Amino acid sequence: HDHIVNEAFIKTYDGTQVPPGTVTKYAGHSLIQFTHILPGAIWAGAIPFQLHPTMRQTYRKVHRVSGYAFLTSSILMAIGILVILARDLTFHNDYPSHIPPADDAELLQMKTSITVLTGWFVYTALAAVVKARTKDFEAH
Q: For 44-62, what is the mean pLDDT?
């Protein structure tokens, strides 16, 4: 994996693409890889089974199972976001030559916003499961 990333992003970087540090910044951060990156792939894979009406109606068991995968991956990704914040690996560090450094007030606002949105993300995922389990499919 590291060889592919090195060849595809680092050796070819000319300043017009995403900075290589954005792609490689979680290398060596296993906790983030397993609580944000991996669950993100599961979450993205579950989306069609959660949102597409025909998939939901035709494949109800797949919808239910992928819903629990969606919920679990959502919670894991939220934990990963908190770890990213704690380790100061947020996006504002990815572009040091393109944007001015954030001051303390901006960092507080960013971290507060991300934390609140992460909490809301988890809340809505849990609320959807509660509504489904109580057979309130309209609200689900």
A: 89
